[in-house]
Specification:
Largest sheet: 6 strands, mixed
Oligomer: single chain
Strand content: 15-25%
Number of domains: 5
Shape: globular
Length: about 800
């Protein structure tokens, strides 16, 4: 008999292969309510849920934050001292984490010397390229850098070696920074006619600067009684010496009525008192004055290139580094492809790869010299993605915050392909997203809710897309929502005329934007929408612009302070209790002395992460104990600030415990823009981009302006909230306002009275009006990319 052969048993699974899940147990960060969840690794997981349901708290503040904290702990204590300190998230167990790379929507730094090229590695590689191949040769890579000034120094140095001897030494460094504008590309000029009326004398009140009255001793009297100027002579008749002293004199001590004060020229004084301050933090009338008085012009010496003449003179194939940086990136990629120089082959290959990544991600229309502060949130996020596309790293967790923001439906497909490519390389991809097209590619879906704020923070569904569609969650019910074209559209009451618009890539555009209706400006990313609206609408048209730029403010600022809501509340508390209003401000007299009104105590543990813990004296309420004895409608001030907008609306309403019309009006507007779930005392630093924009919109709804310009107001909005936004836009128009919306969301397009479509492409392929008319005409026409996608969306 032949010997019986045994069937080979499959090998036992290796212990290392059992870690296929990221396990989260008992997460309580922000509004999360003991969330426990298991996420598959090397898959694409999308997190959905209404705004404020806890998506970011779970993904960014728990999973990504703990991963980054653990990585930082692997560095030496000395290095950790230079890193931002992070406390451990409020969670019981976090298991199976991998290195997290966060690609968020935070705008890039708005430093005037920061550009797309410096924010990526492209500029650094171009500088090396020109220092090697540029003719004439002018120096090392620093000679082409607009952040490096030229330096020359000479002096004596003593060398302490054997017999000490003194030697003369000279040192020089060639930099590329234009000395006139210091690498900024523009120079600021103060319009003197906005500072004073030169037909009057100082004694007659020549100054037209806000707050500079003719009898204010601390400013005007110094000029009048300094002894340098004749106060009774019209400024136009000042001698050359008097004019020099009046405008530019260095700080000098003078005696005025027995007091020693400092006299300083008007220009440096204005620069210190107005121009060195943050424009956003100024009072409206001061900001208006600064906008009038200061003009920014292209630097005449470098013609806006930021570079010295030497850096601009060195060329490769008749192209200087300034020319290369001003090209659209897709054209620059073609130019680099045509360079054949074996001596720098590895450098050319790396540069080519970086530039091709820009094109592939849909940013080929940008130029490397574009200031990074002018990028939208979506563009900034995609620029950050570039360095990861060609990365050889695998088994990494990539965390994205609404990567489809600012993308036309046509571009969303390309973004989806990139996310799938990252996953297919063996990475875990976690995406917070609202758009159905992006949710559709998920391997795993986690839906948080059911509501926002305190009504959210639980996992309502976990599973596949089909399972979500069949579930009875808010997201599941609205996933297949489609807005329909309106049967009747409003008739315009006038038009905002734009003629010969050439800002950025606009190609001599003439267009009439109808007034008194809801107008949507659309087109692919980079087609010129923002240039048309923000760069070309004539000034003084009573326009209120509401964008997504960050709200300036610390963790002490909250919706109550930002909207001015706290003012009537403090006065009502003061009146009801017969005390000062300042007692009811945690930033003033009412602050808890232990934590100075912050509500938390920060303990610095040296090389370890600093720890924040609720203040034991005020228990995180931020106020002195004596202040909490005063009540209004049965509540103390800390209880009022802990209320959500919806609760407070009821509390201060005409039938509430403390009727207060001034507060109720502001709360109505906050609820109108869909922020009913925010608590009045929630720090502004915790708000998302979409929440910030809606908070600004709520504050501006009381303004007198007739034209509202909104920049993608659907950002961060759940499908269910878009309907509420459309209702709000309708109410604004019906109240007599004109609303202009830059938007890619098809529901808003379908709801519009008038659509202006820019394109046909991005960059120099865009900048033209490819369609203007009603949404129904656009769908019937189908002549543009937007028309095709909108027709598909409404099912025509």
């Amino acid at each position: 008999m032949a010997p019986r052969t045994k069937t080979p048993q499959p090998p036992a699974p290796h212990a290392a292969d059992s870690h296929d899940l990221i396990r989260v147990h008992g997460a309580r960060e922000n509004n999360l309510k003991d969330v426990s969840i298991e996420l598959p690794k090397r898959r694409l997981t999308v997190f959905t849920g209404v705004s404020g349901s806890g998506k970011s708290s779970l993904v960014f503040a728990t999973i990504a934050a703990e991963s980054q904290r653990l990585i930082n702990e692997t560095y030496p204590a000395f290095v950790q001292g230079f890193m931002p300190t992070q406390a451990r998230p409020d969670v019981d167990v976090l298991d199976g984490l991998t290195t997290a790379i966060i690609v968020d929507q935070q705008r890039m730094g708005s430093d005037p010397r920061s550009t797309v090229g410096t924010a990526t590695d492209a500029n650094a590689m171009l500088r090396i390229l020109f220092s090697r191949l540029g003719k004439p040769h002018i120096g090392p890579p620093g000679a082409f850098a607009f952040n490096v000034p030229s330096v020359t120094a000479s002096g004596a140095i003593t060398v302490e070696r054997g017999n000490k001897k003194t030697e003369k030494a000279t040192f020089s460094r060639t930099g590329g920074m234009c000395p006139r504008c210091e690498g900024r590309g523009s120079v600021s000029d103060i319009d003197l006619t906005q500072l004073y009326d030169d037909s009057k004398s100082i004694a007659e009140g020549a100054f037209t600067i806000p707050g500079w009255k003719s009898d204010s001793w601390w400013t005007v009297r110094i000029y009048a009684e300094s002894g340098f100027l004749d106060p009774n002579k019209p400024i136009a008749k000042f001698t050359k010496r008097e004019m020099q002293d009046f405008l530019y004199k260095e700080p000098t001590k003078v005696k005025v009525e027995g007091s020693t004060l400092t006299f300083e020229g008007l220009i440096p004084k204005i620069q210190k008192s107005f121009l060195s301050k943050d424009r956003e933090a100024m009072q409206p009338h001061i900001r208006e004055f600064v906008d009038r008085a200061v003009t920014f012009a292209t630097c005449p010496e470098c013609e806006g290139t930021r570079l010295t003449e030497g850096a601009r003179s060195s060329k490769i194939k008749k192209i200087s580094i300034a020319d290369a940086c001003s090209m659209e990136i897709r054209d620059l990629a073609e130019w680099v492809r045509g360079l054949d120089e074996p001596s720098v082959a590895p450098l050319l290959e790396a540069l080519q790869q970086t530039l091709d990544s820009f094109v592939e991600i849909g940013l080929g229309y940008l130029a490397l010299d574009r200031p990074s502060g002018t990028l939208s949130g979506g563009e900034a996020q995609r620029v950050k993605m570039i360095r990861h596309l060609g990365s050889s790293l695998t088994d990494v967790t990539y965390v994205f915050d609404e990567p489809t923001i600012g993308l036309h439906p046509h571009d969303i497909r390309r973004m989806n392909d990139l996310l799938l490519r990252l996953r297919d390389k063996g990475n875990t991809v976690l995406v917070v997203e609202h758009k159905p097209e992006a949710i559709a590619i998920a391997d795993h879906v986690v839906d948080l809710g059911p509501g926002a704020g305190t009504a959210g923070g639980t996992v309502c569904f976990e599973g596949t897309l089909e399972g979500l569609r069949a579930s009875d969650t808010v997201t599941g019910r609205h996933l297949d929502d489609r807005a329909v074209l309106k049967d009747e559209i409003r008739k315009p009451t006038g038009a905002l005329e734009i003629r010969g618009a050439t800002a950025h890539n606009l190609q001599d555009v003439d267009v009439d934007i109808p007034l008194g209706v809801l107008t949507v400006i659309t087109g692919v990313a980079g087609s010129g929408k923002s240039s048309l609206v923000h760069g070309s609408i004539p000034a003084g048209e009573n326009v209120i612009s509401v964008d997504q730029s960050p709200i300036k403010g610390s963790r002490r600022s909250n919706p109550a302070t930002y909207t001015g809501l706290l003012e009537p509340i403090r006065k009502a508390f003061a009146k009801a209790n017969g005390v000062k209003p300042a007692l009811f401000s945690a930033n003033s007299e009412g602050a808890c002395p232990t934590c100075n009104g912050a509500g938390v105590i920060f303990t610095d543990l040296g090389m370890m992460a600093s720890v924040s813990s609720p203040c034991e004296d005020c228990e995180g309420k931020r106020f002195q104990a004596s202040v909490l004895d005063y009540h209004l409608g049965g509540r103390d001030i800390s209880e009022v600030l802990a209320m959500s907008v919806t609760e407070a609306e009821e509390f201060f309403g005409s039938s509430g415990e403390a009727p207060l019309p001034a507060a109720h009006k502001i709360l109505d507007r906050l609820a109108d823009v869909g922020l009913g779930y925010l608590s009045l005392g929630q720090p502004l630093t915790t708000l998302s981009g979409g929440e910030r924009q809606r908070l600004k919109l709520a504050t501006h709804m009381a303004d007198k302006g007739g034209v509202y310009v909104l920049d993608e107001p659907t950002t961060g909005l759940h499908l269910a909230d878009v309907e509420q936004l459309l209702g709000l836009l309708d109410r604004l128009v019906d109240s007599g306002k004109s609303v202009i919306v830059i938007e890619h969301h098809q529901a808003v397009m379908a709801h519009a009275d008038w659509i202006i479509d820019l394109g046909p492409g991005a960059g120099h392929d865009g900048g033209k009006i490819v369609f203007e008319g009603t949404p129904a005409e656009l769908v019937a026409d189908r002549s543009t990319l937007t028309g095709e996608h909108l027709a598909e969306y409404v099912g025509e």
